[in-house]
Amino acid sequence: MLRAAVMPGPSKLARIANTGHGNEFRSYFSLPPSALPYRRSSSITSTKLEFQKLICLALSPQGDRIFENDSKLIGYLADAHFAKGTMKAVYEIVFPALQSQSRYVAKRFYRLKEGDSDESDEREDRLQKNNFTTCQHNDYMQSEIVCLARGNVFLKEFFKLCKEQGVNVYSALRFTDAFLIQELNGISPASGMEESPSDDTDSKDNNTGTSSPMGLMWLVEKRHASVRVQKFCGTLRHTSSSFDLAHLTVSAFNHFVYQFTHKKLIYADLQGTPGLVTVDDKEAEGIILFDPMTHTETGYSGIGDFGQLGINKFLCQHKCKEICQLLQLNQSAPLVVAMEGRERDCISEDKGHEDERDKSGAGNN
Predict the structure, then answer these.
(1) CA 203 to chain centre
(2) What is the pTM of this model?
(3) Do the beta carbons of residue 49 and residue 96 sit within 8 Å?
């Protein structure tokens, strides 16, 4: 493995998530209240690695994720993270072969549930070795890319309906364009993994037909150009006092998703940062959504999925405003909670499970 110096980027601003209950899951990319700005030397080392790029082709009728190997990439992955939330760490990465002016970041989990101990040295901001297997980590990482891909599919259908109904919405809204890479031929210093155990392997190598060690998967996305973050909803909080077009659009979009998925899924922790998007084949200023979560009927869509409880929170708290009414979502998909669910889940809005005070900062700046 070759190592080179990588110059640091701007530090990440803290996005504090405060909760009112001990068992509440905080936005998994929030910095804890005690976090200090990340400090690092003027240059750090990076490791040259070979990666397999993975693309998600589709979901099977049974909901299984179907991935396929794309191209192989050489990348220089920083050995130390430059941002860390309650669940993920963010690293700089450079792909010399990608003819693009864009800068990229790679994200990985350093713990898979909030209750996991974090024995990192806060003074040095070092991460300890992971206490989970590569297989467990990769399964959750695949869920992350599926969540983003689904989001853009849902947005496309939502905008299509709005156009058919002649309803004006904030059309420059997109989920971040991301992809997965998997380490090949070794374990990077940044991965936090020890040597792969013998049973933590891929089933078969497509080319050789033999088993091979499973490398850690990373979520790669373009580095955000802005540190300003707009918060639309929380993990279990879907109330908003904002009436600008972007907030109204996101709120109606989530109601649409509930209808489009036959009441089986809603989005949570929706937040975005300013960025350039394509609208009607033209580049425009827009909002790029990143690090979302979903609540699903099964409760197995990834980290932060509260299952029916999470869906019920949306049903109890969402208030249909102008766009919902113009699209008649309040009639086609009324938000009704069963009586037992209402007694259990529809708590007072002013108490809530999640403090919705401003949580500023960006996920990868």
Answers:
(1) 27
(2) 0.78
(3) no
